[in-house]
Amino acid sequence: MVVRLITILMLFNICLSIGFDPLYLNDKNRTPVERAGDLFQIAIPLSGLGYTYYSNDNIGRKQFWRTYLSSLTLTYILKYTIKKERPNGHCCESFPSGHTSAAFAGAMFINNRYGSKVGIPAVLLASFVGYSRVYAEKHYWEDVLAGALISVISSIFYTTSINTNNENISLFLNPLNNNISINLKI
Q: In which element (H, E) is residue 43 found?
């Protein structure tokens, strides 16, 4: 495991040294808010996926991939179909926000699968990602809200609770089974 991690870090370093910069680490025009948003849009989904490995949750892992891939697939189909101009004048992939969609796919998976105790902080961080995109003039608010909504709906369809029973109040929606449940533990 350690050897695999070291190998990945070395390959990433080599890619950066030859000019490949997918996280825009060498872009001096990015603000700290924008960089944080870029980081969290990757870190939140990776946290959800990583926890499925840590907890040996094979069903959750399948649900994560269904949520994440369906969310991003719809997001990018809409991006390349609608071709809305960004607030900074760059053309044409503003609607919906891919960063926000990715962050909310991870956050809503965490919330719906593992509960609000870990889900609410993830959703707050995902909301920050959306804010960072508006702050950086990459998206309008409606772009961010659409990206979040796509992921929320995707998570509702594909993610079920693991029922850890460590919460006082939980709400779960499952429209496929016409099921809404509210649990209150006293």
A: helix 32-54
User: Is 151 contained in some domain?
Assistant: yes
Query: Do the bridges between strand 179-184 and strand 169-174 make them parallel or antiparallel, or are there none, so unpaired?
Result: antiparallel
Task: Identify the bridge partners of residue 172 per DSSP, sorted by sequence position.
Answer: 181
Rounded Cα distance, 181 and 186, in Å:
16
* Of 96, 78, 75, 107, nearest in space to 138 by CA: 96
Side-chain half-sphere CA neighbours of 36 within 13 A: 12
- Is the overall model pTM greater than 0.85, yes or no? no
SS3 (DSSP) at 19: coil
**Residues 8 and 96 sit within 8 Å (Cβ to Cβ):** no
Q: How many domains does the chain have?
A: 1
The length of the chain, given as a count of residues: 186
21 in a domain, yes or no? no
Cβ neighbours of residue 111 under 8 Å, at least 6 residues apart? Answer: 118, 119, 120, 122, 123, 155
List, for residues 57-113, the tens digit of each pLDDT value.
Answer: 999 999 999 999 999 999 999 999 998 889 988 878 889 999 999 999 999 999 999
Containing structural domain, residue 91:
27-184
Give CA–CA dist 55/27, Å, rounded. Answer: 37
